[in-house]
Amino acid sequence: MTTFLPPTTRAALHLVLRLAIVLAVATALVVVELTSRSGVAWRLITFTYQANLLAAAYYAWTLFSRRADDRAGLRGAVVLYVVVAGVVWNLLLTGRSMGYTPANFLLHVVVPVLAVADWVLVRRGAARWWQPLAWLVYPAAYLGVALVVLNRVGRRAPYYFLDPGSVGAAGVTVNVAVLAAGFVGLGYLLLAVARPTPANVLAPPTDLSSS
């Protein structure tokens, strides 16, 4: 997939898209903290909030460090996590989480769209073929916490499709298999659209950050 953007345009997009992601996450957190009775803290057990905080931290880091921006594998993981969180929420959870509130819209629509745009338009380096498999490590760890730790301390898994009390053990098993396939499939799709091309090699974006 070839991009025809000149280096200066890609550099400007690099700055604008990543600032927008950081600001979108920060705005959502502030809105939730100020307008909801329970605030942000309890929502940090959800995959969406963890993925978006990771995205905000990573993209803020890339604004100041070329080294961070060169970590294509880490950037791919961040994009994958916010995209999966957004897709799952939009397909399965809008009716269970107050719908398209400003914070939900920012975290489940705006941030994933911006992250994908950044991945496609502002590419630097390429993830390796095995990295989409490695990107499963964090979701697998999250699943373990959701199914084991939270249940032991009296909290149900934060998503009904991962809660044996709601869908049964067999249902959870099927849902986990579908999610795993979705993570891997989307991971390799991201890898495919970010494959380096001669245009990208000859005209890398101008660096607006310093390491």
Automatic annotation (TrEMBL):
InterPro entries: Pr6Pr-like. It comes from the Bacteria. The keyword Transmembrane applies. Signal peptide: none annotated. Keywords: Membrane, Transmembrane, Transmembrane helix. The keyword Membrane applies. The chain crosses the membrane at residues 12-34, 40-61, 73-93, 105-121, 133-150, 170-191. This is Pr6Pr family membrane protein. It comes from Mycobacterium yunnanensis. The lineage of its organism: Bacteria, Bacillati, Actinomycetota, Actinomycetes, Mycobacteriales.
